[in-house]
Amino acid sequence: RAMHEAKASSRQIRVYEAGLGHEGPRRLTLAADLRVALRERTLAVHVQPQAEPGTGAVLSAEALVRWSHPELGPVSPEEFIPIAERNGLIGELTGQVLDGALAASARWRAAGQDLGIAVNLSARSLLDDDLVDSVARALHRHGVPPARLTLEVTESSVMSDPARAVAVLHELRDLGVRLSVDDFGTGYSSLSYLKRLPVQEVKIDRSFVIGLREQGDDVGIVRAIVDLGRHLGLEVVAEGVEDGDTQTVLSGMGCDLIQGYHLGRPMPAEEFLPWLAARAAAARPQRLSLA
Ligand code: C2E
Ligand code: MG
Ligand code: MG
Ligand code: MG
Fold this sequence. Notes:
The protein is α/β, with parallel strands linked by helices and about 290 residues long. About 50% of the residues lie in helices and about 20% in strands. It is built from 13 helices and ten strands.
């Protein structure tokens, strides 16, 4: 056990020596290792289903990047996306996720499943000069109709350079892709801003959706966002739906799509068609043999 600890601490020393700059040592290590992961294309794309709350019909999925670090194990995108942004790696990362997501979408189409796919854009990648062209090229390469791709942006990513961001969103819109405001309600959301963004969808942040269980203020907030979306002609997606009661409440409110652990956890993109098939088989009425 002592030896184990000694080993662990010597590794820590090695890691710490690397970190002499203003960024923390872990962050520096992650930045270097993320560069390698991108070069070797070892990041994975997982997908999480999205369904109509009333019927349970699965219409689309969100792509979520996954990184299993060779020594540290899984690292959360909440940790490494900001690192990618600060180290000039976000353009490459976004490109690889888009590529993996559209490749999956193309496979699903080939299997007769006409499903949408959503990809997250970080603040920095939204301002990348090459973004619009690279999205256009990726759609073309995979033969996916632009209307089947949704790009998710957060309010705060738009606010860092609103004029520029809105111009880029219009260019993306001109390609025919759908646009969504992710984590709605958490940023400096100004309602007049939402009206000016060329988006087709809002995603209610999961912190409010999880709060639906408590029957408190979040019920009113979620209802208000669903109504706002409807008045602006936007589709409303609720993320973080963890139980059937929450799904029922959202269905009653008129929410268009739900996403969350109750419907399905994020899974490797290759597992999505088998998951859909298993779900369809389970939903089929059981035929009892009366003979
Ligand atoms: P997000 O885009 O809001 O994604 C939803 C997050 O909620 C995902 O976390 C998902 O795994 C998690 N989630 C889904 N259903 C539930 C649920 O029922 N309960 C709870 N508690 N959580 C749920 P994940 O995958 O860790 O991603 C975190 C964030 O990292 C994402 O938030 C997104 O902002 C960012 N991210 C993930 N993949 C990418 C990517 O490819 N590119 C960029 N730029 N950002 C990404
Ligand atoms: Mg998202
Ligand atoms: Mg979200
Ligand atoms: Mg979120």
